[in-house]
Amino acid sequence: MKKASATLGWVLFGIIFITGCATGPSFKKVEAIPEGVGIVYIYRPASPIGAGASYDVRADGISLVTLLSGEYFVHYAQPGEVEFSARTESTSAITVDIKAGQTYYLKCTLSFGITVGRPQLVLVSSDVGEKEIAACNLEEGKTAKTLTKASPEASLVAEGPVSIDKDILAPTLSSTPFSLVNGHEKSKITIVPMKPTITITRTFDVDYKQLADFIMAQLEKELKNNGAKIQPESDNSFKFTVETVELRYGVLYSSIITLLVKKEGGTWSKTYKTEDSSGWAMQRAFNGAAHKMVILILKDDDFRRLISK
User: Fold this and answer.
1) CB atoms within 10 A of CB 132
2) Do residues 161 and 145 both lie within one domain?
3) Of 86, 119, 118, 84, nearest to 104 (Cα)?
4) CATH number of the CATH domain containing 205
5) How many domains is the chain built from?
6) With 90 as the cut, is the pLDDT of residue 128 above it?
7) Both 95 and 162 in a single domain?
8) CA-based nearest residue to 306, from 270, 257, 258, 260
9) Helix (H, G, I), strand (E, B) or coil at 148
10) How far apart are CA 40 and CA 121, in angstroms?
11) Alpha carbons 257 and 297: distance in angstroms, whole number
């Protein structure tokens, strides 16, 4: 009798609250997966069972989203094993081995419990996931806010001008014209997670092409002011390629940039690395590392020798 009453209570609970479920934007598939991450669609198909109840879905113990019936959420996950879990009066957990560039569908449901519903997490195939998630909506309130936090929270853009001391760069006598070439033909948007951290809520977008363009533009300005003959194209060109960007947070925000400069023809190449920190914001640390990169290259005897021949 108690079991029947509990079942009836859950059905009535779902019917009463079903009109208060997902009302946000309809499902929209991510067209291009950002480099270096996998996408996990976390969704809960609409159901009258526990329709008004919600529960948190976590990744490695960190809360990602609170799901209601008929809602979905997009999680950008770093490669490697990730344990997704949910808990009410019982716990459901599943470990997914995330591969960069891959898409996963994590189906979340709620079954009958003694006092509240019991969450169930299941990894389903793309065919099943695409079909079921199509009827789901993105919650415009709390879920949308959580989505913003789980996605890159900001784009780091290198900004100038770079302050150059007069003593850093002596007049450069260049008898042979040369050119500076961006090693990134197209924008390479990379999601960079802040380390050390156990949560994906601290990530940033970095456009490697924009960063290389900024460094080259600052170099060109200073070198031209000191007699260098720089042309858009020449047989004597240097290619600039951003290899890595690292973001760290401890007492201070820190940014580390690694850049490869290579003389066309393979006769010379060199990797430069700079780091800067800020107690205020990651953007300041990122700017500082980019500015230091310009100064480091200007001061480098090898680079100066090659462009002064």
Assistant:
1) 19
2) no
3) 84
4) 3.40.50
5) 2
6) yes
7) no
8) 270
9) helix
10) 13
11) 13
